[in-house]
Amino acid sequence: METMIAPSDTIQDGVMAEHVTQLSAGDLSDIVDACTQAIVEGGGFGWLTPPDRPDMEKYWRGVLLMPGRNLFVSRVDGVISGAAQLIETPANLEAQRHSAQISGHFVAPWARGRGNGKAIVRGIEYFAREAGYSVLKLDLRETQTAAIALYNGLGYVRWGINPYYAMVDGKMVEGYYYTKKIQDTEQ
Q: Over the Cα atoms of the chain, what is R_g?
């Protein structure tokens, strides 16, 4: 089942963002291809080299099965061109239930510069507000310059740096932590 979110915010220049709860065989193929291409071009989310296709397919099927994990995709001409996940805060972190985490955001190289990333983030923000969240948070490698520019441009605030965040090509890479208040919920 696919649910389009906030049409005015998530459709731009033929790019559409959706919250998806299942993937057809074609969608699964599209998301694996887009993710693999993003990883190869350095825009993957944690992976430095793409896993083999069966493992990648298992990963995406698993994302849809995990409670509290919501998958959002962008499409260009019906083809999945990017994705991100909204990870809801578990019940045992009651003091942090006002916030959720954006994770795994990528856009395929062939679809970059068309508003895919922005459409996905706007869709996630809309969904998160409707679910009662007031704060979103995320982290990025310093090498993800396009993602850094996107989130800065959408009003996310960098609040911290981890100098030992990741190891890429034998070199330590910093990680940046971002947050954004998306609505007031305080009484």
A: 16
Q: For residue 11, what pLDDT band results from cuts at 50, 70 and 90?
A: low
User: 74 forms bridges with which residues in the sheet?
Assistant: 17, 82
User: How distant is the alpha carbon of residue 58 from its chain centre?
Assistant: 18
Average the pLDDT over 76-80 and give the result: 93
Residue 43 has a pLDDT of: 66
Nearest Cα residue to 141 out of 122, 164, 121, 124 = 164
> Model pTM?
0.90
Count Cβ neighbours within 10 Å for each residue of 15-34 and write b for 16 or more, e otherwise. Answer: bbbbbbeebeeebbebbbbb
Structure tokens at 179: 């947050």
Instruction: Name beta bridge partners: 87.
Output: 69, 101
CA distance 79 to 33: 10
Q: How far apart are CA 104 and CA 117, in angstroms?
A: 12
* Distance, CA of 3 to CA of 107 (rounded, Å): 20
Q: How far apart are CA 155 and CA 186, in angstroms?
A: 20
Residue closest to 86 by CA, chosen among 106, 60, 104, 107? 104
Structure-token match 């940046």, residue found: 176
Give residues with Cβ within 8 angstroms of 111, minimum separation 6. Answer: 15, 34, 74, 76, 81, 82
Task: Give the pLDDT confidence of 128-151 residue by residue, as tens digits.
Answer: 999 999 999 999 999 999 999 999
Residue type, 11: I
